[in-house]
Write a structure and sequence with these properties.
2 domains, Nucleotidyltransferase, domain 5, globular, 5-stranded mixed β-sheet, alpha/beta, 9 helices
Length: 336
């Protein structure tokens, strides 16, 4: 393997346009353009997201190359998010990656977005040893993944309905908080009592999750309390956020602990946008201390959607010979 292999990675699965440059499996640059246009609508508008990607993709790649002090002629392989995500957003990233690769005669590597979230653990030290368990938690996915190698991963359990990140964001919307609401719930929860209010914890079979029940319970709870006191949310916001967050975290960690105990695994990590939640990080570290686990949590910038994790996955796929043709198309939903 050439020690000077440079890789360009593209991420455009939702509302972040990101490009990264790697030298082998070392990240040289990681540039992310966040789309603020969606805040006024309370969620990501797919058509606006794809238009913003079109505007952002060229300057983001240009800055990534500049920050890495790498010329486009030095790039040896192009990796990109192929699935899952918003189809219009994916089309922009896939189209750019294919055009860039075709123009320079470069190989292409298609990356599954959730696999890349897991491999974010290998961007910086400390890195987990195999096998390890990864709880991937985002706005669209919630999974427990058994990782036997960089590319040998098995989804042990996943949400049967809503993702944990969606539960956070929908709760925030019910509370009248602006989008994205998940980080705000985390902020207010720090000042609240997590035992003040009680919400149900789902009990799915095996290692699967469900978060639709807690959303419904919160809706009915708020309707009932506001009928008696219109200022209920405003006066109890911190305690509501703390109680909701504690319930979602308990749901996540209950299944993670079950999987780790059953399989006898002591290396445990979290990944995905919700892994930036301070309450989840603290609770996982406490659970890890109790069970004698080694806990791994990527740096914040590698938890949210970013191209560095796409590049990391692309690197390991490339050295394993897993390239793709120019005929490849994006997929809104795809299994691993």
């Amino acid at each position: 393997m050439n020690s000077d292999l440079f890789l360009l990675a593209i991420e455009s699965s939702c509302d972040e346009t990101s490009a990264a440059v790697l030298k082998n499996n070392r990240v040289l640059s990681n540039v992310i353009a966040t789309q603020k246009v969606h805040e006024q609508y309370g969620g990501v508008v797919p058509e606006m997201a794809s238009r913003a990607h079109i505007q952002n993709i060229v300057p983001v790649v240009d800055v990534a190359l500049q920050n890495a002090s790498v010329k486009k002629e030095q790039i040896g392989v192009v990796a990109f998010t192929q699935a899952p995500g918003l189809l219009g957003s994916l089309l922009v990233g896939v189209g750019f990656a294919k055009s860039f690769a075709q123009a320079l005669g470069l190989p292409l590597v298609a990356v599954h977005h959730m696999q890349a979230h897991v491999l974010a653990h290998f961007i910086e030290d400390p890195k987990p040893n195999f096998p390890f368990l990864c709880l991937t938690v985002s706005g669209g996915h919630t999974q427990i993944v058994l990782c036997k190698s960089h590319l040998d991963m098995t989804v042990l359990g996943e949400t049967m309905d809503d993702a944990a990140g969606e539960a956070f964001d929908k709760t925030a919307k019910m509370l009248g908080l602006p989008y994205p609401g998940g980080p705000l719930i985390d902020k207010y929860a720090k000042e609240g009592d997590p035992l003040r209010f009680s919400f149900p914890i789902s009990d799915m079979a095996n290692y699967d999750f469900s978060f639709s029940g807690i959303k419904t319970a919160i809706l009915y709870f708020l309707q009932k309390e506001k009928k008696q006191n219109p200022d209920f949310v405003e006066k109890n916001l911190n305690d509501i956020c703390a109680s909701v967050q504690a319930t979602i975290i308990k749901t996540l960690l209950k299944k993670l602990e079950l999987a780790a105990t059953t399989l006898g695994i002591k290396s445990v990590g979290i990944a995905g946008g919700v892994s930036a939640n301070s309450g989840l990080r603290k609770a996982l570290e406490e659970l890890g201390s109790k069970n004698g686990w080694q806990i791994f949590i990527p740096k914040f910038e590698y938890c949210t959607d970013n191209a560095a994790m796409i590049g990391m996955a692309g690197y390991y796929k490339f050295i394993a010979g897993q390239t793709c043709s120019l005929d490849i198309t994006p997929s809104a939903r795809a299994s691993w």
